[in-house]
Amino acid sequence: MSVALKLVAKEESELNQVLERHPEFPRLIAVKIDAQRRGVHYTERALETVDESVQMRSPYLFGSRDGEIKDLPESLLLRDGTTILTDPTPLDQNPYLVDLVDGKLALVDDGDFVEYVELWSKPLYYDKFTKSGIPMSHVASARPQRLNIFQSSYCHFWADKKECRFCDIVTHTKQQKNELGVPSRLKPEDVSETIREAIKEPGRFTGMCLTSGSVLKGDNIFDREVDFYIETLQAIGENFKTKKFPSQLIASAFDENQLARLYEETGLMSYTSDLEVLGEEKFNWICPGKAQSVGYKEWRQRLIRAVDIFGRGNVGTGLVGGVELAKPYGFTSEADALASTLEEAEFLAENGVTTVYIVWVPRPGSNFRDQKNPSLEYFVQLAQGLHNLRVKYNLPADFDDYRRCGNHPDTDLSRLL
After folding, report:
1. For residue 12, what are the contacts with CB-CB under 8 A and spacing of at least 6?
2. What does the pLDDT look like over 182-227, one tens digit per residue?
3. In the chain, what are the domain boundaries?
4. pTM for the full predicted model
5. Beta partners for residue 208, in sequence order
6. Residue 41 contacts residue 73 (beta carbons within 8 Å)
7. Is domain 124-416 annotated with CATH 3.20.20.70?
8. Is-contact 95 114, C-beta < 8 A?
């Protein structure tokens, strides 16, 4: 008996549909966004290609979508050098596969080839230890061209159960400490020693970023946090002949006196304080600790006042893009969310503050663990909108661009300028 085969055309992928609607938007940046939005899963065939030259996952402030700490590659590069920071993701969440296609690593979606990828190359210092015996990879984690120093992985907003609802910093901290022995707070001498070793690799790194959880203690709120950063930055500065060195601080909303201390007493060049979500109503719900301690309008004003100290283009705020659509109190329309966010971002741009975003990833250790992030269409429009504002107001994003950071799809578009 013969069997009649019914051929059904496969539905065009969401990626291709979005690119058809936005032909001017770079395809590789859209691929990056979608891989961040959906996550990736490494096949066994892909993992068999991993050798000692590959950078494996190192301690980080936030956890992954699978809620586990596994010995997997840190992340991926596209063929034009675009960095993808993405999480290992369970198969039931519909991630991209990292698999072999014609003997080369590639992103694969539902059996279809999407793009060839490369794994990050491990920096030389990753195999070394500080004098105190800590692996240097636990002191400074590397991106392709940036060093990350996470001085403390505890945020005091969690103490009163007022953490940002998308964040898993404290739950992940406990996991890293228990499973990897990662110190909860770094000593300045370990940081200085690690930076000294890292910059021996010629041309590898173009800057560094310091960040940690908020510290509310002190005569004035955040005084202790500022002291801690100054201590660490001064230790890093021992490795440079010039007073200033390529550096970014992502921290709490400091007042003018605190900011002046940071600028005058250290080599810091760029300051970022993340509002996380734009608009007072959504901010109050999603970031209750920040709302109670400083408030949306004051947090925003402190960013604007920081421009007088660090200069236009050297002050920024970061968004967890898409979290403004979280349920039940977020926007119900992607169009409304986009319009509101870009209106607030334009106000900041008018005042010399750059806004960038990362793709929201619902993480198991966060309050929003069971949520779903928005569409690729939304993230593409958000990237284009924030980029257009920087062009309109002539605002650079040097410390958050595709070289020094690689985590912001909107700043990847600066390559087109």
Report:
1. none
2. 777 899 999 999 999 999 999 999 999 999 999 999 999 999 999 9
3. 26-119, 124-416
4. 0.94
5. 147, 247
6. no
7. yes
8. no
